[in-house]
Amino acid sequence: MLTEAEVREIALPILRSRLSSEGLSEVKIVFENDFDDEPIIRIEANLERPTRQFDRIRASANDIREAISGRGDTRFVFIRQASPDEDAAAFDEEDEPGEVFRQ
């Protein structure tokens, strides 16, 4: 499995290319286990302006997963957007791979 630094090296360019117009300011990467104890990667993208364009977030998660998979890491990737106005970033999406999630 890749390290946090290796995942960050892969994730940052992908997230910047899709979310820079929303003011991407920070990315947090957390390794944990999901509900059935499988290892996953959770990424929190801090945005100045939250987006409701789920396709860009899903595409980012899918591209990150594809890139890490190419390096032998099979973990699912979940992306959550965070912003100064957390209420604006809250969505009622189910917690699916490549989806926005709310803790």
Under CATH at level 1, the class stands as Alpha Beta
- State the oligomer: single chain
Distance between the termini: 24 Å
Relative helix content? 25-40%
Succession of helices and strands: HEEHE
Number of domains: 1
| Biggest beta sheet summary | 3 strands, mixed
What name goes with the CATH superfamily?
A: K homology (KH) domain
Structural class: alpha+beta
Number of helices: 2
In short:
The protein is α+β, with helices and mostly antiparallel strands and 103 residues long. It has two helices and three strands.
Features:
alpha+beta, GMP Synthetase, Chain A, domain 3, disordered C terminus
What would you note in describing this structure?
The chain has a single domain, classed as K homology (KH) domain (GMP Synthetase, Chain A, domain 3). Helix content is 31%, strand content 25%. It contains 2 helices and 3 strands, in the order H-E-E-H-E. Helix 1 (4-19) packs antiparallel against helix 2 (54-69). It starts with a helix and ends in a 21-residue tail after the last strand.
Summarize the SSE layout with pairings.
Elements lengths: L3 H16 L4 E10 L5 E9 L6 H16 L6 E7 L21
Parallel strand pairs: 2-3
Antiparallel strand pairs: 1-2
Helix pairs in contact: 1-2
